[in-house]
Amino acid sequence: MRTFKLFLLTLALSLQGFCPISAKALKGERQEKYKEENFNLNQIAITARDGSCRNCEASREAIDMFDIRVESLPQECQNLAIARNCAEITACTKRSGYYNVTVLVEGYPKSYLVECDAHTEGGGWTVIQRRQDGSVDFYRTWDNYKNGFGNIEGEFFIGLDRLYALTNFNGPQELLILMEGINQTAGNAVVFAYAKYSSFAIGNESEKYALKQTGNYSGTAGDSLRYHVGCKFTTKDQDNDSDPDGNCAVLRSGAWWYKNCYDR
């Protein structure tokens, strides 16, 4: 049975020397680069939005991130009426889309709408976050990160409750992070990087969604996640890190599994 896989796509906001740029500006460069590296623009679950989104309100609270048409399974895939993950769905449908998956949460079945990527790195990925144009504010509260926010067709985070369910049903899962950005120290060259972890899982809310494990790392972005294994999730309104000097989410302007604010 194929493993369930999680996919996070972001401009390389966290890589030193990088700055975010719009998806539209990167389109031509990205297409050529992914051709070189056996990727395709349509294979990375991204909706390229024009620059006008930069003028939208950052929070977009009025938009329901899951208010979107759910793809119907084709007739030949009806045996997947209770699909457990994107790997099962895309193995049959052979196409990316928005589907319902059902997982067990504390012994009870629960259905979630997710975005499935059928092509990147063999397909079967569930997209859990996308950052591409700065249209959504990610400096948010605990409840926002618990429940998820943004627009699933654009920038969004799936939510820690869902992420816990997805990483604990059928055991820990692979995590793939694709990043791209401009390297200001190299003539504003477009740079691409990725990080892949073999066994990713987090705890539930009573455990403060602690990062349980990451497994083995591979990639070109550097291993910036494994250092934080065992750490609880911290947001600007809930300080769960171990740094005595303050709330790392406030000091670093972003929520994360922080051990110390400036070590990594």
TrEMBL record:
Domain Fibrinogen C-terminal, residue spans: 77-264
Alphabetized SUPFAM superfamilies for the sequence: Fibrinogen C-terminal domain-like
Keyword terms, alphabetized: Signal
Signal sequence interval, chain numbering: 1-23
GO cellular component: extracellular space
PROSITE patterns named among the record's database cross-references: FIBRINOGEN_C_2
Pfam assignment, any one: Fibrinogen_C
Name the UniProt record assigns to this protein: Fibrinogen C-terminal domain-containing protein
Native source species: Stomoxys calcitrans (Stable fly)
